[in-house]
Automatic annotation (TrEMBL):
Gene3D superfamilies: MetI-like (1.10.3720.10). This is Carbohydrate ABC transporter permease. The lineage of its organism: Bacteria, Pseudomonadati, Pseudomonadota, Alphaproteobacteria, Rhodobacterales. GO terms for cellular component: plasma membrane. CDD domains: TM_PBP2 (cd06261). It is a multi-pass membrane protein. InterPro entries: MetI-like (IPR000515), MetI-like_sf (IPR035906). It comes from Ruegeria sp. PrR005. Belongs to the binding-protein-dependent transport system permease family. It is found in: Cell membrane. GO terms for biological process: transmembrane transport. The chain crosses the membrane at residues 12-34, 78-99, 111-130, 142-165, 186-208, 246-265.
Amino acid sequence: MNKARSNPLNTVMMHGALILYTLIALFPVFVILINSFKTRKAIFREPLALPDADSFSTIGYETVMKQGDFFLYFQNSMVVTVASLFFVLLFGAMAAYALSEYRFRGNMLMGLYLALGIMIPIRIGTVAILEMMVATGLVNTLWALILVYTAQGLPLAVFILSEFMRQVSDDLKNAGRIDGLSEYTIFFRLVLPLVRPAMATVAVFNMIPIWNDLWFPLILAPAEETKTLTLGSQVFIGQFVTDWNAVLSALSMAILPVLILYVIFSRQLIRGITSGAVK
């Protein structure tokens, strides 16, 4: 195993494969960014060319700022995403701690029940969710989206965090109990700081589908004042005519928060993904 890892050819091939995958993953982002600064004719004539003096244009960004209330859509997306992640991490960590720390009747069944949420898409229950939101008066409110996304992200959060919390030393927690710390204090001050890589992993895995979702905003919150960024971008897509400059510009601005979040949490994300691979 060590010889295979130290083989220069294997190292070059591995890095080459990683670089190729990175280029493939970033290629759509690159195409969207360069075409957002080009005229409509240049987009279709030379979609892979960089903007030059003749093709450069910011008409797409000007259209987004004038026609759509972009900042309101951006604010709604940020509120929904941040609030959903907060509740997913808080309740997911609490449930994971309870399942990993305490032994009670039905402990395993509860874990399996929560794991079913990973395998069964929440969109299957769209009709029931819509009826529930209508009955509670939450349609066209951001709380409707926050509640749905919280329920959507909890199964994965519990599944990942419970495995990490089982690795936290029992001696550390027992020492805290001997010192008179309450279970809440042990959870928030001793356990949570040790599972930060796992929480960063859960945050990134949940943030991307929440930020990019179009299904639930279209069904639960289609009003102008509650539109998210993804739904608001659809105003530039018509049945017969599509303003591709505005669409690409809106997508470019929508990509930025995801990239910033990844840069901030990339180290924690990598640690969270790989920490269980090496004993």
